[in-house]
Design brief:
By secondary structure, the protein is mainly alpha-helical. It has one domain. The protein has four helices and no strands. The longest helix is centred in the middle third of the chain and has 24 residues, at about 55-80. It holds the Pfam family Multi_Drug_Res. GO terms for molecular function: transmembrane transporter activity. This is Guanidinium exporter.
Length: about 100
């Protein structure tokens, strides 16, 4: 169950990171409110997960999910570059996340 909670926390990290783009510098009230709710929920779920997982592992997985997911959303939603080198680096992050899961 802690890994599921951590995964959900990572998904919410993606949500708030992408949400930052839609807030337009926190000038749009609804996207700002939704982004802040996602931020708080993400950190709360991370806090619940670290009750049962090593903090270093949980934090690395949380940020890895957020980084990879946000980069993919940037490519799909905002036309960010999807160069082979960038995709390979994202793949390395995924391998690291899987590795941490396997050894924890």
């Amino acid at each position: 169950m802690p890994w599921i909670i951590l995964f959900l926390a990572g998904l919410l990290e993606i949500t708030w990171a992408v949400g930052l783009k839609y807030t337009e510098g926190f000038s749009r009230p609804l996207p700002t409110a939704l982004t802040v709710v996602a931020m708080v929920a993400s950190v709360v779920l991370l806090g619940l997960a670290v009750r049962h997982l090593p903090v270093g592992t949980a934090y690395a997985v949380w940020t890895g999910i957020g980084a990879v997911g946000t980069a993919i959303c940037g490519i799909l939603l905002f036309g960010d570059a999807a160069t082979p080198a960038r995709l390979a680096c994202l793949g390395l992050v995924v391998v690291g996340i899987i590795g941490l899961k396997l050894v924890s």
